[in-house]
Structure formats: structure tokens, C-alpha cells
Amino acid sequence: MSITAQREAELLAKVPTGLLINGEWRDASDGGTFDVLDPATGEKLLTLASATSEDALAALDAADAVQAEWALTAPRERAEILRRAFDLVTERKDDFALLMSLEMGKPLAEAYGEVTYGAEFLRWFSEETVRHYGRYVTTPEGKNKVLVHHKPVGPCLLITPWNFPLAMATRKVGPAVAAGCTMVLKPAKLTPLTSQLFAATMMEAGLPAGVLNVVSGASASKISGPLMQDDRLRKVSFTGSTPVGKQLMKDAADKVLRTSMELGGNAPFIVFEDADLDAAVEGAMAAKMRNMGEACTAANRFLVHADVAEEFTAKFAAAMKALKPGRGTEADTTVGPLVEEKARDEVHALVEAAVSAGATAITGGAPVEGPGYFYQPTVLANVANDAKILTQEIFGPVAPVTTFTSEEEAIKLANSTEYGLASYIYSQDFNRMFRVSEQIEFGLVGFNAGVISNAAAPFGGVKQSGLGREGGAEGLAEYTTVQYIGIADPYAAKK
To answer: Parallel, antiparallel, or unpaired: how do β-strands 398-404 and 378-381 relate?
Structure first.
């Protein structure tokens, strides 16, 4: 059954439209606003307050004012807040799933999957809050004791992307709360509604005023600029494009800020000649079409052994052709729109360039006519190894296939990119899995698995895909500083 217009209106009426500063929803200081659009129709969903630089600093004022008190709260208290938030998000899965589908475009089935995935960061970090251990040991020569203590890093700026509106917020807010940090959250202007509702849910779960502040806005630089130059800010965590991440790192250098950067990707999906091709196609669909291909982990280059390339490509194209584009709220939709018209145009330009250079569109290859920003699920064969579509993120439902003839060539092709986030290997040879995974330059490797992101696992890349990790014990460590206390030998008087 499709979602009714009345149900959508009732949900949108629940979403706070102001800025969350010190526990209160308020208008922008200059009264400015911006519209959030439905990418399936191009129509307005809601109008939100657009934060100014003054508002951003007010949010930091609030975060800084409660940092010391929040840092001293008992770990169990912080853990229980996160657990209550997990319960509330899970109970309200229908609201969160529909809201993500409306503002981002993903089919409801995928949106429900993100609710489960995103909520798990709250549960995982609620459990880790009380298990973030220091250590107490004797120095090797026996003259002192070593006490190592993990302290919250301090007020953090959290900048989230538009493609996973809930999960990218929970993946940053969860460990910050667990560590005892206060926050200023800047959601993406294209999809801020889920963050607004999530922040309200965190407050309902018992998060004290000022710990989490939310400043949505049309201008990211007006918000991040003054915050990055303020001595009270101690960390910035950013998920987004590599060019923006590089600029933020330059800005962070002036204040020597802690940084976590989860940037662009160019994931290879390597299919060896001994792979189970049906499993490989299933994995390819998951790795490519999750979020309509709008994910930094999305398979971007399909490197297939020449002996099985024709069979794999035919099966893959058949699976892609069977997908049905449509608004995410429609019951039979299996692939939603791209997030905006600009994104669709950029995807099509890459496809046109590849075809002009000799590639063949086995299926798809063009925008979908009509309203919204839809693009046909596409498989390209005979793609040249130097094609532009293989060198940059596609961020859309397009799968270019190229071939290799040896393990060494596959490794060389996989590494022929400046990025190093996700990668995928399909083979029935575990020895090959170890050899290849140790030689390819990627922070994440999926072996016979098309989706591997998990709250319990460290997520992050190498090279120009960023630095730092989110998720797992490593994700909590990103929000702490290490303090060493050297203690004189307490037994010295007896020796």
C-alpha cells in the first residue's frame, strides 16, 4: 500500500523547523529560511530556519557552557540516554523511514533498513560507554606507576552528508555522547529533516540542554567557518566530498583541531574466475544499488575476470533492468530518484562520455522522463580502463564493467585511484582473499559480501578517502584524548 498525502502531512507537522540551541527551538537570528524539496517531485516539503554565523556561535556557546558538567556525568547515565534513544528511534521506525524516503528519495524498504542500521549505533555505543577502559601498570624499571585515563575531547562540530540522514547522525552523535562530548550538529541542507526529528528524540530520551545543538542552514561555510576558528571547538567530524574535507583540514590546522574525515570513494568490485557468479551478482546489486548508488561505499568499478565477464555482465544487467524507478513511498518502487537535478546531470554526463569513448550500455543509459530526478539503472560494458567514469565517484545507479586476466592485474587496477575507502572481492579461494586484501589499498574489504558496514566495526578509508574511524571501539576513541599520570612508586619507602 502506498503512503497517503495525509500521512505525509501529519509526519511533516511533527518535524521541528527551527534551530536547536541550548535545548530550545528558535528562529534564525536574521529570520532567514530555506526550503527542503522532495527529489521525486521537486516540490517543497518544509521550510526550515537557516542558521547564521551568529547562530552557529550561539550553539557553540551552549555546548561549551555545559561541557565540563557533561564530562563528569556517570558513564551509566550517558549509556541509559543512548539506550532510551535507541528504543525511541526503533519504536518510531515508521516515522523515520517515511521521512528519509520523502527528503532523500530512497525506497521505503531501504529506509527501514537505515533505521535499523542507524539505531544500532545508539545501542552499540550505549554498551561501549561503560567499557571504555584505561590502564594501570608498572613502568619496566619499576620506579613508577602508569595511569592512563581517557577524557572527552571537548565540544565537537559534526557535519553530516545528505545520503544517510539518520545513520550518519547517529554514527557521530552516539560516540560523542558516550565519550562525554558536547556537540554542534550541521546536517546537509538537502536532507536536514531527519536530523531535526532525531535531535528532538534525543532530547526526549533525556539528553540535557546544550549537549546537542543543531544548526541546519543553506550555507555550510557560514556555520563551519566561525566555529573552526573558535578556540573552544576541539574536534570536527566530517562526512562528505574529498575537496570539502581537504578545506576543513586546512582550517582545522590553524587551531590544531582533532579531525575525523570520511571522504570520497572509488570502490572496486573484483570478480575472479572462480567466483560464484550468482552470489557475485547478488552482492553487486547490494554494493551498487544501495541508496541508488549514492553512497561512498558504492561499488564504482566492476573489475571482472575476462573468462566470466560476459556471463557476469549479462546476469548483472538483467537484475538491474528488473528494477522499477519511482517515488520511494510507492509500494512497487525498487529504485528512487537521485537527490537533485545537478546530481542526475553529472551522472548522465559520465555515461555519455563513456559511451562516446566506446562503452556499450547493456541496459539503461539515460534519465527517466517526467518529474523528479530519476536515472535508469545502467550497466556499461567495454569500458576503457582510463575512462573518466572509472576515476571519480559516480554517485548514481550506473555500473561500468571492465576486465582483467590475472590476480596481479586486478590488484593494479583496484589500486589505480587516489581513493581508498571500500572494496569488494568475490572468489572461492580464501588464500586469494588474504593475498588480495593485504595488497589493495582500502580501509574496508568485503569478501563475498556486498554490504559490510556495521556499528561494531571500524569504518574509514586511506589515501584521499580520509582519516580516522567511525563505529566500533575505534569510533569511541576518536572522541577522547589520552591523559597519562605518572605516579611515584608507592612501595619506594619499603624498599
So the answer is: parallel
- More confident: 486 or 492: 486
Rounded CA-CA distance 36/97 in Å is 17
Alpha-carbon distances, residue 129 vs 13, 48, 75, 179, 215 (angstroms): 34, 33, 6, 7, 26
- 262 an active-site residue? yes
pTM greater than 0.90: yes
Residues 6+ apart with CB under 8 A from 409: none
Interval 101-114 mean pLDDT: 97
pLDDT of residue 1: 56
The Cα–Cα gap between 89 and 310 comes to 45
For 343-357, give one letter per residue: b (16+ CB within 10 A) or e. bbebbbebbeebbee
Beta strands at 156-159 and 183-186: parallel, antiparallel or unpaired: parallel
d(CA 459, CA 443): 7
pLDDT in tens, 286-331: 999 999 999 999 999 999 999 999 999 999 999 999 999 999 999 9
Terminal Cα distance for the chain, rounded: 80
Q: What pLDDT, on the 0 to 100 scale, is given for residue 492?
A: 76
User: Could you tell me which residues are beta bridge partners of residue 35?
Assistant: 47
Residue from 128, 262, 294, 330 carrying the catalytic annotation: 262
